[in-house]
Amino acid sequence: MSVFTEKMCFVLCVFIMGWVMFGQAVFAQGISARMEHPNLVLTKDGVAAVRNGLEKYPLLGATFDKTKKDVDASIADGIEVPVPKDAGGGYTHEKHKHNYSAANKAGILWQVSGEKKYAVFARDMLLKYAALYPSLGVHPEGKNSSSPGKIFWQSLNDAVWLVNMIQTYDAVYDFCKPQERRIIEDSLFRKAVEFNVIDCKKVFNMIHNHGAWNVAGVMMTGFVLGDSAMISDALDNFLALVNNLYSPDGYYIEGPYYLRYAYWPFGLTATAIANNLSSLNIFAYRDSVLLKAPLVMLQMTDPTGHFLPFNDAIKEKAWTSQEVISAVDIVYFRTKNHSLLHVAAEQGTVMLSSEGVEVAKAIAEGKAPKSFKRYSVMLRDGADGNKGGVGILRSGQDDDQISVVMKYGVYGMEHGHYDKLSFMMYDQNRDIIKDYGAVRYLNIVQKRGGRYLPENKTFGKQTVAHNTIVVDEKSQYGASAVIADDKHSNALYFNADNGNFQVMSAIDTTAYSGVSLWRTMAMFKYDIAEKPVIIDVFKVMSNEPHIYDLPYYYAGTLVETGVKYDAHKEWSPLGKKYGYQHLFNVAEASVDTNSTFFTWYLDKRFYTLITTTTPSTEVFFVQVGATDPEMSLRPEKAFIVRNKNVSNYTVASVLEPHGEYNEPFEFVNGAYSNFKNISVIKDSENSVDVSVGTKDGREWLLSIDRNNATVKKIK
Amino acid sequence: MSVFTEKMCFVLCVFIMGWVMFGQAVFAQGISARMEHPNLVLTKDGVAAVRNGLEKYPLLGATFDKTKKDVDASIADGIEVPVPKDAGGGYTHEKHKHNYSAANKAGILWQVSGEKKYAVFARDMLLKYAALYPSLGVHPEGKNSSSPGKIFWQSLNDAVWLVNMIQTYDAVYDFCKPQERRIIEDSLFRKAVEFNVIDCKKVFNMIHNHGAWNVAGVMMTGFVLGDSAMISDALDNFLALVNNLYSPDGYYIEGPYYLRYAYWPFGLTATAIANNLSSLNIFAYRDSVLLKAPLVMLQMTDPTGHFLPFNDAIKEKAWTSQEVISAVDIVYFRTKNHSLLHVAAEQGTVMLSSEGVEVAKAIAEGKAPKSFKRYSVMLRDGADGNKGGVGILRSGQDDDQISVVMKYGVYGMEHGHYDKLSFMMYDQNRDIIKDYGAVRYLNIVQKRGGRYLPENKTFGKQTVAHNTIVVDEKSQYGASAVIADDKHSNALYFNADNGNFQVMSAIDTTAYSGVSLWRTMAMFKYDIAEKPVIIDVFKVMSNEPHIYDLPYYYAGTLVETGVKYDAHKEWSPLGKKYGYQHLFNVAEASVDTNSTFFTWYLDKRFYTLITTTTPSTEVFFVQVGATDPEMSLRPEKAFIVRNKNVSNYTVASVLEPHGEYNEPFEFVNGAYSNFKNISVIKDSENSVDVSVGTKDGREWLLSIDRNNATVKKIK
Questions:
Q1: What's the ipTM?
Q2: Scanning A195, B63, B380, B546, which has its CA 20 to 30 A from the CA of A30?
Q3: In this complex, is the C-beta atom of B622 within 8 Å of any C-beta atom belonging to chain A?
């Protein structure tokens, strides 16, 4: 109960009082009697709205037609409910996934069209599962999961199956005969709930996105079966999840890529709660965090709608993914935020429910804007919003927007990476300074069933796979998730009010014992420059000397650098552990100047990073792909700037997008950086002054302290 | 004169008779008197047509507005004609390029708009060049070119400059005062022609695309100055170029990438000839080869309009490049082939001339088709069409087209590669079995001035960089261009009449002494398969045992293979020369089965190659990038199937595109090949029988001989 706010507590007390007053059975019967079907996500009103909108709103009609076509094909194929055998991507896995999706859709079609064949298909599917389910033990491939399922190799998929199948049942409840209902409820749903609650107790009670699916399945089953014990158990856990997984800003603990998936059960469950326990006012809970979160998630995309690939993320995932459809529709339905219509239009499909009807209607009325506006934004991390966060500075609009993202929040549960104070830079609609993301080929069964590959742990998560300082060639927290899990960086400030000088600053004292890392990144539109530059001041403090490695994973072709490197004839791994074993040492160099530069180009533009160096600076040019027995890694490239035998050290860099590479008209402008130098001119514990100058003699002074950063032109 | 056909000879005789009869001076004066200005590409009629069409045809109007904007900006910047200093990409290089382009456009604007500022700008530019030109020696960066220029580092650019500047002069001829004309003609154009004809004699007389620019410049200058000696010299060379660089099918000796550039002077010169010596009927010459060639070139693009990257090719180049605009407009003007309108619409700009008006008009009338249709086609190589060729088999349309391309023509002059019988496969709008193309970063001045890099010769051109058999780890012709230059493969047959079984076969006995290479490739749409498979039968015959390496450069992620490989911890070059020094040996395997397979995926689809093996077969997984001191190579991946100590050997393979990877809806279908095995069941000098079978028990027999190939279902 500790998870409840006062208001919620009141509402639930009323609920529990009812339960206590009437006794469980009576109350359950009471709900059962009151509940009409369907009433989870699709409601009686929703059915009427869909029917009414089919001809009027093209997107709704198209979705309906597509759904009909899919289900008709499934009906033609006949129902097959195979004994579970294969892992992700394999035959039985894909078949059961197909089944729950087809059944859920058939239920909706029955409600909307009244065509009996859909009800028959849905009911027969339920009965076939009811016949099989009681005989199922643990899935034969369950050994690969920390929480095996029965129908699928991991219980997560079983929970998703339940969420779909209970909606199916809700849709055909009235169609089923009482004896069919008894079979379906007793042999299937009560047993499935038992599995979800008892066998998967750990997951059901876990503060984790997997738990959200279990909770969703149990809660929805409770609503349909009129079982208040299920509802109560699930509701308690649901609120605990909402309280702990989201920050007050709506930032989700595992980052945008996982929220894409995680919000699915949150959105559906909240909708079912809103439809069945409307007095809870669930969407207003925690200052409407469940409405904020999807908007925050969409802000954390690149201009093509791909999610910023924090943590374990498949970089191909974009907002067009099916799992994002309900998030967009549910939030639009309750906020009427028009920016969501742009996303819905790109998705090209809507929910067949009240939510989807509203979206399709608004799009038909021409309300969808041409683009989704992305802004500079700082998102606090942690349930109370005091565990650092993620900062995004942006300049320009739409296709012409440059973004820089810094991550300084919590570890992010088991999908987290050791990437405190790492950054990414976006331009030309893609990542220019890159994060590798997850090492995984999702759904490619030949690549270990589509699961995370071992290199995800040995490389993807490690600090050296990120654009942040690695101390002594080790990962943050010694690559221990247990240690990392309750640590976080701290936000110092974030200021995007001045479009010409936006700045964010964060500090971390937890990642490396005895070392404090303080990074300040500014997006600076100097004078009348069309494009901003990124100024990056990374200050490291320690009482002991260390090796500090700062990698930059760049996209494109390196065309010039200020260092004289030796390219190795044979390639060997750069190190033995903490991810270094996966980096080939391609070339290396010593630096004997005060600063050096790296210029590369990609598509239509050049990029130059000028960075301060010391007499001990070395540079390694690396390529990902060493120690890769199954040839799973992509050959990404980076340069690593190393400073060794230093204790306190501040590196200042300016990263400039410049010039134009015009391929059709075959000309090049501005292939060289406009900047000449950058240097740290004052450096103390709590402040740093940096000067940066252009080749045409202009110069600026950047003054950074713990509370603020400012810039002024000095020449 | 030997290059003339009878008909041409007649026409030119008339011309020469006139010259002889009236004496050179008189005749020249005669032409001069007859010639109105402008009359090269833009004519008086063209000016009227452009004026008339500006308001009516949006594409013409847009091109005009854009041109006006560009030139207005140039006028605002003022004229700068710097003393030549920089190589390609550098300041003076780009400035002079900008100048000739701006001047040429200003001339056109003057003609069309009658606004005096354009004439003044063009004239003043001419006068500034006239003031500078006589003082110029060889360009300071000329040492990097086999034929240095004066204004540019290579004379090629000087010739392009001349072609633009003489059109400029033609446009403002009437505007210039007689004394200005004298200065411009004597100090600039006569000297420039002298440079092009005398100093660059080798280039001017060369059968080569560079020569085409010199010839164009000299011929156009001849027309404008009324100098019949110039015209005669240039015409003779022009016809020699047309006779020798194009095959009767319009295939250009250097391949489609270079024709893109080479056709520019051909199209402009032929247009100027048509406007000034119309009785020559130049576009009908050699069975209209100058109208065929651009159409052939456009057939040799992928579905996104990128040129098949034969030989030295920059893979980014597409039909939207500026150099393709005039080719499309000129050919449309004279053929009214509507497919060209699709390309013109994608280019989004037209010539400001009669040609461009016709294109813009047709597009305004809605005549542009939605797509450009690509067909299966065999293009003969060699001036007489008997030197092998290029075969392209295609199945499906537009975005859903699969293509396989085999190259079995001539070497292709100094931009040729040692790639006889190499193939590429296209699907999903891109190359799936890839050709590396050229090692060059065009116009990136930091990469050796944008010139070809040394690795172009040591890797890009070498046989092992291509998807064809390498014998004894050496390149074809011992990588000697001199030897390769007059050798060619022979086409055996090409048959695309049966859409379900298209086949092409070619043989080469010149690439390796004592070794005959015979490759037959079929595109086979078995039974009711949606997608065809590629069947590849490569027969090698020799009296001596050799090492035969067959690389497959694949795009995507390898997900499974039938061989058990050891991935190397340290990467070393696979060999020492012939390109092997640039390949890292990533992993290797021995094969102990009769066939093996490789499955990879890219974007939405899987690909499996099943290939026959012998007890001596080894497999190497390689990555490009070894011995690369300037880090210029892309990390492309290949597997190389090696058979050693065999003399006669036939390898048969089936390459199947299969399955679907649906990312938004997160499902995978058909991740495994439908095929089970392939084997060579009969093998003699002149014929091979191959059987290929699917996992569901179907089997086909492919019978190949020197004259034909057939397939029949046997199970």
A1: 0.91
A2: A195
A3: no
